[in-house]
Amino acid sequence: MNILRIIRPYVTVLLLTAAPLLAAQENNSAYNLLNVTSSAKIYGLGGVNISLVDDDISTVDQNPALLGGEMSGMLSLNYMHYVGGSNFAGVRYGHAAGEHGAWAAEMRYFGYGSMKETTPDGSIVGSFSPKDLTFGAMYSHDITGYLRGGIALRGVYSSYADYTAFAVSTDAGINYYDPDRDLSLSLVLANMGGQLKRFNESYDRLPFDVRIGWSQSFANFPLRFSITAWNLTKWHLPYVESGDGTSSDEPVVKDKFSSNLFRHLIFGVDLISSPNYYISLGYNYKSRTDMSTYSRSFISGFSLGGGIKVRNFGVSVALAQPHTGATTFMLNLSMNFNDILH
Questions:
Q1: CA-to-CA distance for 274 and 231, rounded, in angstroms?
Q2: What pTM value is reported for the model?
Q3: Which range of residues forms the domain containing residue 315?
Q4: CB atoms within 10 A of CB 326
Q5: What is the pLDDT of residues 92-134, one digit of tens each?
Q6: Which helix (H) or strand (E) holds 118?
Q7: What CATH number does the domain containing 56 carry?
Q8: Number of domains in the chain
Q9: How would residue 248 be classed by pLDDT, with cut points 50, 70 and 90?
Q10: Contacts (Cβ under 8 Å, ≥6 apart) of 212
């Protein structure tokens, strides 16, 4: 089977769809909440992974082509304590659609805690709790025995004090999976769409992205390796290096080839020796360098996850520390109603 011959027409369609979005891409995109995963397994692998083929409905937020009939009847609940007073929560359910398709429905809540409300002159007039709500559905279909495609559609409602906005986002992806070699390759166009209702006269763009992913284990070695390339709509991703806080030197802008390359890559490895548990480790160089100040800790950029499955129920957790003042935590609970009923 010539996999390039099979994939080429689908890749062509996806890239043609993305062309006008690539031309319009700017650095002032908003709605970066769309890049926050709802999966503890993914968060433990660095926060973005579009190629992880697993029996876990929570991971399909990364790539709708990862959804499949094998997840029919599966329900996942997720909670995340994020930076500051932010708390996120959500639910997703999947079901088979015929022999070669599947659908899923989801909802997520993003709460950012209480903030002071002030007038232009700085007078405090009260407080407000900004929030975002996303809801949507996705569908996937088996194109061949090795290739699956999928599409997701989400609405994003935002409420910040007296201002509200609404946007629509679409993800489209394909995944090639060879079970004999445990080889998975994926391509995703993420966060296509736009704002239908603005906060004010200013238009906020969605963080459109092109992503490529690879995951694979080797022979009987109980580890699966993943590399995800993201932010592929632009090469230059400069950051400011402020040092360790002990020097009065001016901050330095880093924009070298090596730093740009690694800020596009996320590395992950997970232990897959048993279907009943896993341990994962991820490294996100962009997350580490985004916190490039003296407040950054030694483990900034790293994330750790783990989970167990007992009969029809599963629990997954993940931890990361972007900087010394922020430790993030994610929890997933999952169950399969089909297995329970049978």
A1: 33
A2: 0.88
A3: 3-341
A4: 17
A5: 999 999 999 999 999 999 998 888 777 777 778 788 888 999 9
A6: strand 115-118
A7: 2.40.160.60
A8: 1
A9: low
A10: 50, 186, 187, 228, 229, 232
